[in-house]
Each structure stands twice: as structure tokens, then as C-alpha cells.
Amino acid sequence: MLRQNVGMHARLDGAGGPVNHARVDSGRAELLRDADRDTGWMLLVDGTPQSYVDLDDPRYLDFEYVRRLGHLLDLAAEPGEPLRVLHLGGGGLTLARYVAATRPGSNQVAVDADAALVEFVRARLPLDQPPRRTRRSGRIRIRIGDAREALEQLPAGAFDVVLADLFCGGRTPAHLTSVEFARAAARVLAGDGVFAVNIGDGPPLAHAKARVATVRQVFGSACLIADAAVLKGRRFGNLVLAGSRGPLPVDRLGRLAAGDPFPGRLVYGGDLDRFVAGAKPINDADAQPSPAPPSDVITIQGRG
After folding, report:
1. Residues 99 and 122 sit within 8 Å (Cβ to Cβ)
2. What are the boundaries of each domain within the chain?
3. Using CB atoms within 10 A of its CB, is residue 99 exposed (0-12), middle (13-18) or buried (19+)?
4. With bands split at pLDDT 50, 70 and 90, how would you rate the model's confidence at 201?
């Protein structure tokens, strides 16, 4: 979840309302055209923003938390080098499009449980993929199913990055928050690959702290990025959590997050120790869905 940028909301209201809609498995999907970007589209489900896609400029990332995930992708390998990326939570395939544009030749898999939503997106926001796969073109494959089940079926060491942006009805399902889920993600990562998670939480951040403890139990390195107000427990919002078996590029990542239009703060090392103090990892046996956002908070539900 992410409190919506009011300026973005205003320009969408001025675009004349929904121009495409359909019933999908998770509710009513709509597409709104961006009044300020001719090829920009907002995907909503039951009125809640899910994804932003610019068909002509897939490098443009509008949502704050998506930009932070984009920074992790930018630093996962040398610029332009292909990546193998697993997207758990498809939505508008924003970050899959971003990787295809910034790292030609990347092979990616996106998993989403909502088959009707996937078809709606593919029909209205088509992927610009070559008609024939070549070594340079790469590809984006889409699988329908539960994220946990998909992880258990994929081969070990098959990906360089795993992104988990998983919400259902505004909350992350319990079985996608646990140590067992993080271990399943670690299994499909190669070497020092990166596992990144979008978390929705608010005061007192008990769920976010437990998620950090969970990832730290599986991965040797971890860091957290969020707005200062969210980290201080002043409001509900997004926190991007990253883990890796090897060191994370925290210095460069911190500079990129701080330089965003809505600056993010990066927490790691001793500061992360203090943030998570007293929190226990989540296991399947005691897992609960992430907290629902307050009714008076305008949110963006993450689905990629």
C-alpha cells in the first residue's frame, strides 16, 4: 500500500474517467488514461490503484515504491546486463516492462493468481515483445497461480532477482509472509541474488518488523526503504524490504532512494537492528495477513 500522490490523482480525474473496464477474478478492473502522459495508464481494481504503465516509456516509474524496486533492479548487475527476474504479483507488469527496456535480453517470469486480470492487461496494455525470440530479445512469460506454489515448482538457482508484490483485498495473504516463503524464494535465487518485497503497514509497524526479522533469518544481508514518516510510525504506507546471501549495495541504493521526487530513507546495519529489536520471525504456523490500510487513507495496492 502507498498513500497516493495527490497531484497524480488530480490529473487522472481530469482525464475523463475510466475508458476500459472488465470483471476479473478479484473484482472490477478499470484503466484510466493519464491526462499528462498520452500513453500513461493507471490500472485499478475495485477503485484501488494497482499499477501504472506508460506504453511508450516503460522506463517511467510513477509509484514511489515501484521506483525503489526499480533501483534494486538497476543495481542487481552492471548497467544493461540481462537479468533473470521472477515477478510474484503481475498486475500491469510495470517492472517486467522496465527490465525489458533497460536490460534487453532478460528472461522474466510473472506469476499472478487472477487469470482474468492477466488477460485484461494483455489485451489493453500489450507487451511490446518481438514476434520471434532471439538471444538478444529475451522474453516475459506469464504464469497463472499462487505465488508460493509457483516458487515450489520452479527450478533452484533459476533467477537473479525475485520481486514479491503480493496483495489480495488490500492485504498480503498469510502464507506469503513467512520464513518458509522466504526460503522458497531463496531456493530459486542464484548465488547472491536479491529477494525484494513490498510491505504495507502502519503504526506500530509490528508486521513490518516481523517481516524484516523473517527475511534476516533466511538471508545474510537485508535493508529497508520507506518514507521517513512511515519508518517513524506516523502513517500507513509502503516499505520495500530486500535480502541477499551476499552484500547489498546499500550506499548506492541509499543515494538513489534519497534522490527520488519523494525521497526514501534506507535502513540497514545497526539501524536495522534497532528497528527490528524484539520482533520474531513469522512461521507458517503463526502467520497472519498483513494489516489492512485505514479506511481514511488513499492507497495504491501493489501488484507490479
Report:
1. no
2. 60-286
3. buried
4. very high
Sheet with 221-226: strands ordered across: 139-144, 107-112, 84-88, 159-164, 189-201, 237-244, 221-226, 265-268
Which residue type, as a one-letter code, is found at position 175?
H
- The correct CATH number of 60-286 out of 3.40.50.1170, 3.40.47.10, 3.40.50.150, 3.40.30.10 is 3.40.50.150
Q: Which residues contact 49 (CB under 8 A, 6 or more apart)?
A: 4, 42, 43, 63, 299, 300, 301
Q: Are 160 and 190 in contact (CB under 8 A)?
A: yes
The residues with which 84 forms a beta bridge, in sequence order, are 107
Highest average pLDDT, of 15-19, 46-50, 56-60, comes from: 56-60
Side-chain half-sphere CA neighbours of 77 within 13 A = 17
Q: Is the pLDDT of residue 57 over 80?
A: yes
Q: To the nearest 10°, report the CA torsion of 266, 268, 167, 278.
A: -130
DSSP states of 63-88 as a string? SHHHHHHHHHHHTSSSTT---EEEEE
**Average pLDDT score, the chain:** 90
Residue 41 half-sphere exposure toward CB, CA atoms < 13 A: 22
Whats the size of the chain, residue-wise? 304
Give the integer Cα–Cα distance in Å for 70 and 61: 8
Distance CA 31, CA 38 (A): 13
Question: What is the structure's pLDDT at 295?
Answer: 75
Question: Considering only CA atoms, which of 289, 270, 207, 284 is closest in space to residue 241?
Answer: 207
Burial of 55 (0-12, 13-18, 19+ CB in 10 A): middle
Reference 69, options 39, 89, 55; nearest CA is: 89
Distances (CA, A) of 25 to 115, 127, 138, 189, 193: 7, 21, 29, 30, 32
Q: What is the pTM of this model?
A: 0.91
Residue 155: DSSP 8-state: P
